[in-house]
């Protein structure tokens, strides 16, 4: 464990002066580059008109400079944070961004933390110094250097204060003990060796990062995204990286880390955002969500779609061409069998259903009107039959009748109808528990079902494709016209110039009409993340899942569809699972997709929770599963966690008194109050009345000094002080209640208090 004092070597004022001078040079260069990007951006914004291709190129250049500007702005704080000195090389400065002098041959002024050259900053130790003699952490406020922490890595020269398992002790300790702000900070200045291994692991394959609370899984996941985008830029800028988090509050909590790392091209989303056009954030019971998350839903959804392919009891009659036309059950049955046998998605197979039904009906008509009264062959020719089929196909009454038996369906329509109709649920083989009002909002657990239905239903895009082909043909004809004009004018220009004519390339020599059209097609200039958000079938270059233990098997199916390359990083902790459809085994999650071909890395050091709090958490963890070991705390806070029994009828007042006391103790820090679901509303209302501005509700604003929420909402978050209310109820509320309590007590970075109205649960006996 790190002692509460940093192992800093003294640095002279001359050092401070020269480092400040260097820092100033770096900021001057940053300003210069910023100004250049700004000027170019302004110039582009002033341009107007031009060809479609010119406009497209302009838009791409505009986006490029806008992104560059955003990057330069995002590194304003902490631009440079480190320096490496080598025995046989000049010093190397490490920062959030790489910077070169105007003369690029002069070498880098600042090395991007993600570049291979920056790696010793995170890995070098006194035992394995990698040629580094000294690692220097530069502490800054704005553009001013406020301090220097040095570590001497050369054992001979050093004073032995360095520790082998922690790099940059003083800087790390200062980051860990700083007040929380309600927004996660990046950790580039103090990434530890075991975290660095994960962050820089290669792009391909499934990588699981298992680690107890506070081991930096979220931090590592975000820095890995930044590293991958930097290292595989070509590949990933086109396809994008998806980061999936557990809820919107959490996404807001982590939202500032990536821009701070100069990365803007990532899609941050929750499961509820993964079906374009649907915002699925309504709540539902954990038991219902668990049913929806199980793979039994696959058969049920297939049944639900099959149930929409109906048959009449006997026949239906429509008016065709002034005569009654009977559409018999047998005809529809044969058409349905043919369509189902095709194995195509419902909406695509509809073509087969219609074609087959019309074929059968045309035979029926042929038998009626073409029958030879003398008993010979049917009198209708093939051409007559084709005409009959065409007439049937174009007959609106026939179309409508066939539509009833094999309708075009959307995922939303099928799922909404299914979940709001007891008969449909029963017929699909689903429990009545899933029944809800038609007007109910979509929930996150609905999203994988919508996605699965989208696959089962497919899209009949025959008409769209035909229209696109027609448009392209028209464009090519137009282009041919344009090229002919160009060619025509060339022959005029060079009519009399003999040999020279053959030596000059014309437009037709370098471009055919098809290529010409392609060049003039409007290119989509949205970023990969923007396009991905709007496209259900988007394939990401890499997918990162945080709190991955909470995802249901159905949710994993959705994600794997978005990532056929199986380039996935899953970070989580199987001891913290609260969702009933979540997992306690990574093997079970990944086996179906990649068999044994997945890697697991375990993080073992807890950077968040001090040892005193972790001792309490360890007892809870032992009750969750005696085989699990808690992560080792990197520091102690010197504060003993406490518990207080209060009468149930004064819980609210006692809580408010405790809130006032804790809030004063943590000064500018953040206080989190974690309550059972049953008490959330009433305690929240009382709290806001007594402490105006306290954050409550579905999406509490974590920037507030005090926030009250359920444990489920607090997943992945942290506070300087945590008050856990009614732990017995938290345990009793869910079959995974002990895991929830484990999550609750491990949210604290400094102080933990428990208010209980009944006997303290056995797992918290150490607080008695
Ligand atoms: N190398 C580091 N340097 C500085 N701070 C760190 C480092 N690693 C982790 N932290 C800090 O520790 C805290 C916990 O990290 P994080 O939230 O990523 O943990 P986690 O493993 O995702 O936790 P949980 O499973 O409880 O959600 C954060 O405040 C994070 O910034």
Automatic annotation (TrEMBL):
Keyword Cell membrane attached = no
Any Pfam family:
UvrD_C_2
Work out whether the entry's keyword set contains Coiled coil: yes
Q: Give binding positions for ATP.
A: 211-218
Q: Which residues form a coiled coil?
A: 16-47
What PROSITE patterns does UniProt report for this protein, alphabetically? Answer: UVRD_HELICASE_ATP_BIND
> What's in the keyword line of the UniProt record?
ATP-binding, Coiled coil, Helicase, Hydrolase, Nucleotide-binding
SUPFAM superfamilies attached here? P-loop containing nucleoside triphosphate hydrolases
Q: Where is the UvrD-like helicase ATP-binding domain?
A: 190-610
Q: Which PANTHER family match?
A: DNA 3'-5' HELICASE, UVRD / RECB / PCRA DNA HELICASE FAMILY MEMBER
What protein name applies here? HelD family protein
List the taxonomic lineage. Answer: Bacteria, Bacillati, Actinomycetota, Actinomycetes, Micromonosporales
């Amino acid at each position: 464990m790190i002692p509460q004092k940093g192992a800093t070597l003294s640095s002279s004022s001359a050092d401070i002066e020269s480092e400040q001078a260097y820092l100033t040079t770096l900021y001057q260069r940053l300003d210069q580059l910023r100004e250049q990007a700004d000027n170019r951006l302004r110039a582009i914004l002033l341009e107007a008109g031009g060809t479609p291709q010119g406009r497209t190129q302009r838009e791409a250049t505009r986006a490029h400079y806008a992104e560059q500007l955003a990057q330069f702005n995002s590194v304003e704080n902490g631009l440079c944070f480190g320096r490496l000195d080598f025995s046989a090389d000049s010093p190397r400065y490490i920062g959030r961004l790489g910077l070169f002098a105007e003369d690029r041959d002069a070498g880098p002024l600042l090395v991007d933390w993600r570049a291979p050259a920056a790696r010793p900053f995170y890995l070098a130790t006194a035992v394995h110094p990698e040629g580094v003699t000294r690692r220097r952490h530069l502490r800054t406020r704005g553009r001013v250097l406020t301090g220097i922490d040095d570590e001497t890595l050369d054992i001979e020269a050093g004073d032995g204060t360095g520790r082998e398992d922690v790099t940059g002790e003083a800087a790390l300790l200062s980051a860990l003990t700083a007040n929380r702000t309600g927004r996660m900070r990046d950790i580039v200045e103090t990434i530890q060796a075991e975290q660095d291994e994960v962050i820089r692991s290669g792009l391909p394959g499934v990588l699981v990062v298992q680690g107890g609370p506070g081991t930096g899984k979220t931090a590592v996941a975000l820095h890995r995204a930044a590293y991958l985008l930097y290292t595989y830029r070509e590949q990933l800028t086109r396809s994008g990286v998806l980061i999936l988090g557990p809820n919107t509050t959490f996404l807001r909590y982590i939202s500032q880390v990536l821009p701070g790392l100069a990365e803007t091209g990532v899609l941050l989303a929750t499961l509820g955002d993964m079906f374009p056009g649907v915002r699925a954030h309504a709540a539902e019971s954990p038991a219902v969500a668990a049913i929806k998350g199980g793979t039994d839903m696959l058969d049920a959804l297939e049944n639900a779609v099959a149930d929409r392919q109906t048959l009449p009891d006997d026949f239906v009659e429509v008016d065709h061409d002034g005569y009654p036309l009977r559409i018999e059950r047998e005809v529809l049955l044969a058409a349905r069998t043919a369509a189902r046998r095709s194995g195509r998605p419902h909406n695509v197979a509809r073509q087969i259903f219609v074609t087959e039904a019309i074929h059968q009906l045309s035979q029926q008509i042929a038998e009626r009107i073409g029958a030879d009264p003398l008993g010979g062959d049917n009198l209708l020719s093939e051409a007559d039959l084709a005409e009959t089929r065409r007439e049937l196909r174009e007959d609106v009454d026939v179309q409508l009748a066939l539509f009833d038996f094999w309708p075009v369906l959307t995922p939303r329509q099928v799922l909404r109808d299914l979940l709001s109709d007891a008969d449909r649920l029963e017929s699909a083989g689903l429990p009545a528990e899933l029944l809800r009002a038609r007007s109910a909002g979509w929930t996150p657990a609905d999203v994988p079902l919508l996605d699965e239905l989208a696959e089962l239903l497919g899209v009949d895009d025959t008409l769209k494709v035909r229209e696109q082909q027609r448009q392209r043909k028209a464009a090519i004809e137009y282009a041919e016209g344009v090229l002919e004009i160009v060619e025509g004018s060339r022959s005029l220009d060079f009519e009399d110039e003999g040999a020279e004519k053959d030596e000059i390339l014309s437009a037709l020599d370098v471009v055919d009409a098809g290529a010409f059209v392609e060049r003039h097609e409007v290119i989509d200039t949205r970023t990969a993340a923007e396009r991905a958000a709007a496209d259900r079938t988007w394939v990401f270059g890499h997918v990162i899942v945080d709190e991955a233990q909470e995802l249901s098997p159905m949710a994993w199916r959705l994600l794997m569809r978005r990532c056929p390359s199986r380039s996935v990083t899953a970070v989580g902790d199987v001891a913290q699972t609260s969702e009933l459809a979540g997992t306690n085994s990574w093997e079970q999650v990944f086996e179906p997709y990649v068999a044994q071909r997945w890697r697991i890395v375990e993080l073992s050091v807890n950077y968040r929770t001090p040892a005193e709090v972790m001792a309490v958490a360890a007892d809870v963890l032992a009750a969750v599963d005696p085989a699990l070991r808690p992560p080792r705390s990197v520091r102690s806070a010197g504060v003993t966690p406490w518990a207080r029994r209060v009468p149930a009828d004064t819980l609210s007042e006692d809580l408010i008194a405790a809130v006032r006391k804790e809030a004063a103790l943590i000064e500018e820090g953040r206080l989190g109050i974690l309550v059972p679901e049953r008490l959330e509303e009433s305690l929240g209302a009382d709290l806001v009345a007594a402490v105006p501005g306290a954050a409550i509700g579905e999406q509490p604003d974590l920037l507030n000094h005090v926030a009250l929420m359920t444990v489920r909402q607090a997943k992945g978050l942290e506070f300087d002080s945590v008050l856990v209310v009614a732990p017995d109820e938290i345990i009793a509320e869910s079959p995974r209640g002990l895991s929830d309590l484990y999550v609750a007590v491990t949210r604290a970075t400094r102080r933990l208090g428990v208010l209980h109205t009944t006997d303290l649960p056995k797992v918290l006996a150490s607080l008695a």
